[in-house]
Amino acid sequence: MRIDLHAHSNASDGTDTPAELVAAAVGAGLDVVALTDHDTVAGHTEAADAVHALPAGTRLTLVPGAELSCVAGDISMHLLAYLFDPAEPAFAAERELVRTDRFRRGRAIVERCRELGADISWEQVQRIAGEGSVGRPHIASALVEAGVVASVSDAFTADWLANGGRADVRKHETDPVTAVRLVRAAGGVPVFAHPGAVKRGRTVSDQVVADLAAAGLAALEVDHIDHDEPTRAHLRGLAAELGLLTTGSSDYHGSRKTVRLGEHTTDPQVYEALVDQATGAKPIGG
After folding, report:
1. Between vectors from CA 240 to CA 237 and to CA 243, what angle results, nearest 5°?
2. How is residue 38 annotated by DSSP?
3. In terms of C-beta density within 10 A (0-12 exposed, 13-18 middle, 19 or more buried), how is residue 281 classed?
4. pLDDT tens per residue, range 248-267
5. Closest by Cα among 173, 149, 176 to 161
6. Neighbours of 159 (CB within 10 A)
7. Tens digit of pLDDT for each residue in 144-178?
């Protein structure tokens, strides 16, 4: 089985529609794909409908999920949440709070970019985002269109959009321990996304990971494009010490990033163990 537990659609900052993501997963030879848009479940219904509409004999399982924006002290981090009840009130309210603040933050970042000499506009960013929730990758695409930077990744530097960069603006982010507890209370399974991705900015200490494990964290996302081999080895050792599972995922964003669906995958036994922990929702199809 080929299992990719981290992918985005244009419901957040990917470029594929949820239906296109399902088709891409089939084309990549995946058996399981998780839709984990940032702080939203807006793409779940379309993705589920696409799975149900697959031709007879085509096997693909969809794992509904989300990627949550969190902050530990002053360090931003992301938490993957799988198979939670999207209607559970407390968790739904927190996702809405984060999503609403993305709008305010996006406009503020655009204004900072303009003050720094970038000829971009809020209307341009909204056009790029389409129906999706505006995020920094959409602003990065606007910077590329304006010729300010050569690529989306080049926009995520201290000069522009990186955490703490000249144009960065903080948004509402959930305390990660609170986020883990909200996910569990909604019947979901929480996994720490790319915990060692130092190229994105500062990362949290092992003690923070231990605190999350004590609160109910299920796993660490270890095999990820932003982790080198020494980082992966450290995270595997930490996971073993804390009794956590380890996953692998592409963090696919369509054409916005170069990573391919299925570039990193999760062991089938780990996937089954994660599904066994979920009580809020079930995988779809397969």
Report:
1. 150
2. B
3. buried
4. 999 999 988 889 999 999 99
5. 149
6. 14
7. 999 999 999 899 999 999 888 999 998 888 999 99
